[in-house]
Specification:
Blueprint: E1 3-17, E2 21-28, E3 32-38, E4 56-64, E5 68-78, H1 83-95, H2 103-110, H3 116-122, E6 142-144, E7 149-151, H4 153-159, E8 164-166
Antiparallel strand pairs: 1-2, 1-4, 2-3, 4-5, 6-7, 6-8
């Protein structure tokens, strides 16, 4: 059975697969996070490639048979290209579950008021209830995405752990 979806999404990331295809990570309004293949999107004649750049909002048509495949896309806008926006979208990619739409998260993304602490809050990692994983201090300043842990600045600096998301 084949399902077809038409929805709006933001491109979180893209990765090359095979000789000409791309694997696209999207956060969509109706489907939540979706990882889909864009066949032949890396070919010079591809009409999809420019619409499926990270940070772009796009109206997409996705077909699902055994896996998701993007068959059509049209750029409708874009988020500002800065390191903060890229970092926040990385949080969305890493922490959101596939196939679980969250309208609060979608509205936050659409508002373009992307603040890491707000995204963490919507995803269930509210800083108000967090303490430093090491010393128990309230109001931690760093969130480690891979470990899903909060740290205060002194403990974070002592640990030498990379890949944090600073909340200050």
């Amino acid at each position: 059975m084949t399902n077809e979806y038409y929805t709006e999404g933001v491109v979180l990331d893209k990765e090359p697969i095979g000789e000409a295809d791309l694997q696209i990570a999207l956060y969509t309004r109706d489907l939540g996070k979706v990882v889909a293949r864009a066949v032949s999107a890396r070919k010079i004649s591809s009409k999809l490639a420019s619409h499926l750049e990270p940070l772009n909002f796009a109206a997409v048509r996705i077909v699902q048979k055994n896996r998701f495949q993007i068959v059509d896309a049209l750029k409708t806008g874009a988020l500002s290209k800065n390191l903060d926006t890229v970092a926040v979208l990385r949080l969305v990619k890493e922490l959101s579950a596939e196939g679980q739409p969250d309208l609060a998260l979608w509205e936050l993304i659409k508002s373009e008021q992307l603040v890491g602490g707000e995204v963490l809050k919507v995803l269930g990692f509210d800083k108000r209830f967090a303490v430093c994983e090491n010393c128990g201090t309230k109001n931690p300043t760093h969130f480690l995405v891979k470990q899903l842990e909060y740290f205060c600045s002194p403990c974070f600096l002592k640990s030498g752990r990379p890949a944090s998301f600073a909340l200050e």
